[in-house]
Amino acid sequence: MPSSSLRGRAMSAGAWSLAALIASQAMRLGGNLIMARLLVPEMFGIMMIATTLSVVLALFSDIGLRQNIIQSKRGQDPLFLDTAWTLQIVRGFVLFALTVLIAALAWLAQQRQWLPAGSTYAADELPGVLAVTGLSAVISGFQSTKVALAFRNFQQSKVALGELVAQSGGLLVMLLLGWWTGSIWSLVVAGLVSVLITTLLSHLWFVGPANRPCWDRQALSELVSFGRWILLSSVVGVLAAQGDRIWLAGSLSAAELGIYAIAILLLGAVETAVQKFAAAVALPAFSEAVRADNPLRLRHLYQRLRLLADFVLLFSCGFLSVAAPVLIGWLYDERYSQAGQMLAVLAWSLFMLRYVVAQQLWLALGRSKYLALDNLLRFAALWSLLPLLLALGGPEWALWGVALHKLPTLLLVIWASRRLGFFSPGRELVVLPVLLLGLAAGWLMDYLLG
User: Which of 75, 81, 274, 335 sits CB 3.0–4.6 Å from 145 for a disulfide?
Assistant: First the structure.
């Protein structure tokens, strides 16, 4: 494939992904601003734990089916796709069963008073919310592999529009039920509706072979072989990514965790945008350059996408670390004011997020074990720091552990980049002034409007 064609399709995919991300995050933030006035903070704290459990269980069984379809030479083989789809369905039912079991254990623990009094885990609504939220695993398990093919073939316009339609449907349900009931179930039902719309669209709107049950041994062998490192990476990665919620929920009330959820929501707007952009653009572009055996094109793509990520995330890191309290004061009422100081600390995590582009390069080159090692380091750092900091200084100290626990992975990034021939010390240093630019912009905003 000529490099100009790949560049054009990657740029088109990137433009669609960026437009969709802006629209998606605008809807997400707008919906949250309205729901924050319709619901009490406790409901956001309970929903954060339910969502965390869903994510943890999903990634505990993640073998990278979508990434494999994008990367594999058999990625358009119907036997390969149908085997992946069948495996995905089985996984969905297993996840639902595990969720219901955990919900029952949570209810039993509440009845026996085994949980810290006043913590989020002791909230009466938690077991029921957990059980119903688990239905999303069954629904998403039936999602067609046509979506993965769309990523592989740079059809990000369809993916973006499909996600926006699903999000809009869920948002509409959430706002109507929230206004009508003022209940946490407005959040739960909206999530299920969004997943259902996504699954229906994957079959009815996307182009590709229709899925049917299949169990091809050769395809299964490839899926498992590629996915074993993805699975290890996902297990430790989700414990690293969600560990803050797991630990803090035992120390914070549902209302306090709900305020923390607001800070995480705003930080997540940046994180989600970058991660989705990397998965939708960087991985397909890198994978195609690898399949075409074009190392020069691969290097050029990597350098350009790294530069974009560095600029956006270093600036955002500096800006939010200063201006976060002002932003929270503008957007939310006084019940959520503490989220501003939380966000100012958490913003420093964006310094390391920029290396998500390097992680997509590892996957494209078939080095998924590097990603597993990266997540293992983050897991070890977070799960050793948080208990210690909670014991020494409480949640205030623990926030710094959440923000800075990714720093040890910088050594792995440097080592892996040198090993693959993609590391340049000068290039790593020359982008750092963008952090100062972000700090200056934050200070200016705080001075003028704070």
Answer: 81
Work out how many domains the chain is built from and give that number: 1
Residue 48, helix vs strand vs coil: helix
Contact between 81 and 10 (Cβ < 8 Å): no
Domain holding 166, by residue range, is: 3-442
Angle between helices 368-404 and 356-364 (to 10 degrees): 170
Residues 50, 350 contacting (CB under 8 angstroms): no
Q: What is the pLDDT of residue 7?
A: 56
What's the pLDDT score for residue 352? 93
What pLDDT was estimated at residue 1?
A: 43
Task: Please report which residue ranges of 182-294 form alpha helices under DSSP H.
Answer: 185-204, 217-248, 254-277, 283-291
Under 8 Å between Cβ of 386 and 243: yes
Six token digits for residue 102 = 């955990």
The DSSP annotation for 111-171 comes to HTT-SPTTSGGG-TTHHHHHHHHTHHHHHHHT--THHHHHHHTT-HHHHHHHHHHHHHHHH
Residue 318 lies in a domain: yes
Whether 300 is in a domain gets the answer yes
CB 371 within 8 A of CB 341: no
Give the type of residue at 384.
S
pTM, whole model, 2 decimals? 0.75
pLDDT more than 90, % of the chain: 49
The low-confidence residues of the chain, meaning pLDDT below 70, are: 1-18, 21, 60-63, 154, 156, 226-229, 232-233, 450
Residue 13: per-residue pLDDT: 59
With respect to residue 338, please indicate whether it lies within any of the assigned structural domains: yes
